[in-house]
Specification:
- The chain is mainly alpha-helical.
- The chain is built from 4 helices and 2 strands; from the N terminus they run ααββαα.
- It has a two-stranded antiparallel sheet.
- Helix 1 (11-24) runs antiparallel to helix 2 (27-63) and helix 3 crosses helix 4.
- It is rod-shaped.
């Protein structure tokens, strides 16, 4: 039941150790350290790429970009229509409320010439 502990060392550590091993003439250790250095650099590059992607995705989500797979922000909701009354036998709805009244001139014309008013209401 042993725990495996992995130390994450900076790139500068590996470079210092390689320089020391070269100075000492231990080529076997130099190769081993160079291999470890390449592996560490791969890990760093992979982590940096993941960080860049995470930042880009976060920016896309914040901006609502469709390219990042995020949904665009919802458009502002229209105000509900409110009943404004009846005029000319039609229901009238207004977004800011209000009311509608029959046109008295149209009523007078309807008494004199109902056929003209009927034609006006069709078109």
């Amino acid at each position: 039941m042993g725990l495996k502990v992995e130390m994450i060392l900076p790139v500068s550590y590996y470079k210092e150790q390689i320089a020391k091993a070269k100075k000492a003439g231990d080529m076997k250790k130099v190769k081993e350290l160079e291999k470890d250095l390449r592996q560490r650099e791969k890990e760093i590059n992979k982590q940096e790429a993941m960080d860049r992607n995470a930042r880009a995705n976060a920016a896309d989500l914040k901006a609502g970009s469709a390219m990042g797979g995020a949904k665009p922000p919802k458009p502002m909701r229209k105000p509900e229509m409110m009943y404004g009354g009846m005029a000319n036998n039609k229901k009238h709805m207004y977004s800011a409320g209000g009311s509608v009244k029959d046109n008295p001139g149209l009523k007078a014309l309807a008494r004199q010439r109902p056929d003209v008013v009927a034609k006006m209401m069709k078109g």
